[in-house]
Inverse folding.
């Protein structure tokens, strides 16, 4: 499975629910495992990690993941960002692989035999790296809004959410709010995924905290920094999971615990987009 | 006071961006250097972040490369596929700025592991976009701390390729120019026509003896190694606002 969202719109609500349900033995794909997979690995959900950058952005390490790798308890399959992007693109387009100009002279292909080479049929001798299609059983993305038909709109950083979703057998979109179909139809350019490509929509306000939702709430950088000492110490980490994940029934419980002061402090001032005229044609 | 090691590196990196139009930046010192450069020697500089932002005008110093302040007021946002495929691989990036835990004389960079890959002593973050930035940017500027543990004869893992792999393989014909400059707290290094690193200038206050002691291989020196001027008070003040 994949929970995608590059820094923006990382669905912690889904990660926490998976931990609460005690799922284990999962293969977790994500460009940047981030805190959400650090928590899931610590909770024992993961067997294998497929990734391209392993860190706490702007802070340092993901200590639970690092401990699991250094202790040999977590299988890894490692790419670069563009390689991971390409894997989803190929998966979404029903192609066997994605060609990219990377990896030449890097040791990554030596430790990941799935990174291979093809020679261009049009320019023999032009060797291009290839990475295999990635088709998750389930991709979960977070988004600003959707309607009841599952049409999903996103603005700000879109990362690889579209490709990761379209590559998956089943797509779950978790959204900040449910809107009328007219709201979606008033601005079709902003639709990341049409309803035909979405299996289920869940409405979970603040479901991406401590990551952010552009225009809705800021990234909780203080939490990302506070995670470092928690994640360093397995006992502290387990106590955190007990208190903030297993100890609350659902996302609403988490939010209540987070408190209105924190939520209010993360609210940005308005900066609306300019509007465009699509025109009425009759 | 001529500045802390970080401040000296930011000042030197910003100076390298004079006249540059497009820079692919990561968070930390490269980000501070790019913002400083845009305010001083490179007013037309477009800051490009791997999260999919072009022409960011952050109203605050971003904590991560995916900060919402990078989006508000930017000239363009796009998917990571479009950014990596059309802008980086498409040859539209003049300068890529990278950091590393280890570098060798050929400018190969390690951000993956210290020790063996399967049983690392230290597991580092890995490539992110660095491998393709090192191969596709027209030129690469490396900003990193120098010590005999980071300037090493044989790096533990080549994450991002330099001018020649330790096993002798050369750079592919399609690749960009590769590492052009390495900036540390001790010096500014360039590369010879054979791809080997050479000391080009000393940071203010640093000596050739410190440069030698700060590397596990004997670093080649260019003739007439310059000494960089200490950053002036205005520059230092600007940097201090950027590097908390």
């Amino acid at each position: 499975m994949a929970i995608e969202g590059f820094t923006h719109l990382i669905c912690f609500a889904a990660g926490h629910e998976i931990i609460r349900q005690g799922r284990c033995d999962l293969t977790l794909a994500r460009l940047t495992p981030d805190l959400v997979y650090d928590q899931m690995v610590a909770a024992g959900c993961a067997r294998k990690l497929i990734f391209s950058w392993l860190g706490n952005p702007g802070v340092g390490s993901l200590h639970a993941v690092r401990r699991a790798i250094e202790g040999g308890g977590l299988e890894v399959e490692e790419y670069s960002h563009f390689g991971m992007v390409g894997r989803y693109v190929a998966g979404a387009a029903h192609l066997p692989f994605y060609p990219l100009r990377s990896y030449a002279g890097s040791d990554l292909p030596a430790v990941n035999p799935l990174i291979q080479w093809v020679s261009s049929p049009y320019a023999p001798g032009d060797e291009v790296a290839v990475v295999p299609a990635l088709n998750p059983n389930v991709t979960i993305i977070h988004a600003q809004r959707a309607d009841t038909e599952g049409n999903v709109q996103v603005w700000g950083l879109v990362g690889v959410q579209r490709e990761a979703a379209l590559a998956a057998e089943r797509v779950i979109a978790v959204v900040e709010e449910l809107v009328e179909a007219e709201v979606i139809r008033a601005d079709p350019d902003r639709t990341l995924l049409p309803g035909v490509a979405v299996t289920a929509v869940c409405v979970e306000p603040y479901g991406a905290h401590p990551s952010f939702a552009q225009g809705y709430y800021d990234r909780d950088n203080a939490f990302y920094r506070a995670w470092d000492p928690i994640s360093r110490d397995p006992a502290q980490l387990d106590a955190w999971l007990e208190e903030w994940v297993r100890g609350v029934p659902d996302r609403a419980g988490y939010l209540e615990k987070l408190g209105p002061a924190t939520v209010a402090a993360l609210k940005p001032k308005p900066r609306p987009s300019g509007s465009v005229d699509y025109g009425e044609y009759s | 006071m001529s500045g802390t090691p970080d401040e000296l590196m930011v000042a030197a990196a910003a100076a390298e961006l004079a006249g540059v139009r497009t820079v692919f930046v990561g968070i930390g010192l490269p980000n501070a250097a790019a913002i400083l450069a845009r305010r001083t020697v490179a007013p037309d500089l477009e800051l490009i972040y791997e999260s999919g932002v072009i022409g960011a005008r952050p109203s605050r110093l971003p904590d991560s490369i995916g900060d919402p302040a990078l989006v508000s007021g930017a000239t363009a946002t796009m998917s990571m596929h479009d950014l990596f495929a059309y802008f980086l691989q498409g040859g539209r990036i003049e300068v890529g700025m990278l950091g590393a835990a280890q570098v060798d004389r050929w400018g190969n960079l390690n951000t993956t592991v210290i020790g063996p890959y399967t049983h690392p002593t230290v597991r580092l973050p890995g490539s992110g976009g660095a491998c393709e930035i090192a191969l596709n940017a027209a030129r690469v500027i490396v900003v990193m701390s120098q010590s005999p543990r980071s300037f090493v004869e044989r790096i533990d893992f080549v994450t991002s390729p330099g001018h020649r792999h330790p096993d002798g393989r050369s750079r592919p014909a399609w690749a960009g120019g590769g590492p052009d400059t390495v900036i540390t707290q001790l010096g500014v290094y360039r590369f010879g026509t054979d791809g080997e690193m050479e000391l080009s200038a000393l940071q203010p206050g640093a000596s050739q003896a410190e440069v030698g002691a700060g590397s596990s291989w004997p670093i080649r020196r260019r003739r007439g190694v310059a000494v960089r001027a200490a950053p002036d008070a205005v520059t230092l003040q600007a940097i201090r606002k950027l590097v908390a």
